[in-house]
């Protein structure tokens, strides 16, 4: 596998570079912060159209923050996020909602709402004074519940469900929105391994068969490498590498991004990169050896 990576567009030498806005969704030299706590500076990314893009990186590296900015939930303190060539913050909320759907990391349902009613709220962007609930809306809701395996829960209250069931209901609501771009922040949270694969298979189907552009934050690097067509590896709010998983996922990259010694082999099922962490003993010996070298150099 090639160790080639794309240039780091957020470095100081590139601060004034304007990236192409050919693709529908991009971030251009954005600085992202919560109050005074800066998460990323001069960060630029472009989401390839018709891709299944997955953002990976260690905890607190800015993955979810970047997704919030791309979805209009967080306004950059500097720079801009562009959707179809327009600054996303300047666009009407309903217009954005008809183009871009979001499954946030943590969602809270209103008290006493049923599964079918919550999924139906995904149709809100398509409603208006002259267009109320229709048979088409009902069809989309039923189809979205069936795709996510929650159709049999339609009349149940959401607050009665398990964490995994609730997660699938929220995914169904995002699907019911029927947007060409769909952003998902850790969509496999709370799910067992079977349902994780079911959700990722569904995402792959939406991308491959319906032509939707998907952007997901995932913690499992092997899932990301298996399903993504485009991978963005972040560390400390900086893009370390991006590209097709087969082109960028190497043992060196994993150690640089996650600080983990490993081997990268070919997944026997898909041919995509498969990360195999070094055994605890090997990692301990390597750490001890590095500490001895550092102590010798310091003396």
From TrEMBL:
Its main location: membrane. The keyword Membrane applies. PROSITE patterns: ABC_TRANSPORTER_1 (PS00211), ABC_TRANSPORTER_2 (PS50893). It is a peripheral membrane protein. Residues 25-261 form the ABC transporter domain. GO terms for cellular component: plasma membrane. It comes from the Bacteria. One of its GO terms (biological process) is iron ion transport. GO terms for molecular function: ATP binding; ATP hydrolysis activity. Signal peptide: none annotated. The keyword Ribonucleoprotein does not apply. Keywords: ATP-binding, Cell membrane, Ion transport, Iron, Iron transport, Membrane, Nucleotide-binding, Transport. It is found in: Cell membrane. This is ABC transporter.
């Amino acid at each position: 596998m090639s160790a080639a990576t794309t240039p780091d567009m957020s470095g100081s030498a590139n601060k004034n570079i304007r990236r192409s806005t050919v693709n529908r969704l991009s971030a251009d030299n954005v600085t992202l912060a919560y109050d005074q706590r800066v998460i990323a500076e001069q960060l630029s990314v472009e989401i390839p159209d018709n891709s299944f893009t997955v953002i990976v990186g260690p905890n607190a590296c800015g993955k979810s923050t970047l997704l919030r900015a791309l979805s209009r939930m967080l306004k950059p303190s500097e720079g801009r996020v562009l959707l179809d060539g327009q600054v996303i913050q300047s666009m009407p909320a309903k217009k954005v909602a008809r183009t871009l759907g979001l499954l946030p990391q943590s969602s809270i349902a209103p008290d006493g709402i049923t599964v079918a009613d919550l999924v139906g709220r995904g149709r809100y962007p398509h409603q208006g004074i002259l267009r109320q609930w229709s048979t088409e809306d009902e069809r989309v809701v039923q189809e979205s519940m069936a795709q996510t395996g929650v159709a049999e829960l339609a009349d149940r209250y959401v607050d009665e469900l398990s964490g995994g069931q609730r997660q699938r209901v929220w995914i169904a609501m995002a699907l019911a929105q029927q947007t060409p771009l769909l952003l998902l922040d850790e969509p496999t949270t709370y799910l067992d391994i079977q349902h994780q694969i079911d959700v990722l298979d569904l995402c792959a189907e939406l991308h491959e068969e319906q032509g939707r552009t998907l952007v997901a934050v995932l913690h499992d690097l092997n899932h990301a490498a298996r399903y993504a067509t485009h991978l963005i590896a972040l560390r400390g709010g900086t893009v370390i590498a991006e590209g097709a998983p087969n082109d960028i996922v190497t043992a060196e990259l994993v150690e640089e991004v996650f600080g983990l010694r490993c081997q990268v082999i070919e997944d026997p099922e898909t041919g995509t990169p498969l990360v195999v962490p070094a055994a605890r003993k090997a990692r301990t010996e390597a750490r001890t050896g590095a500490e001895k070298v550092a102590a010798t150099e310091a003396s």
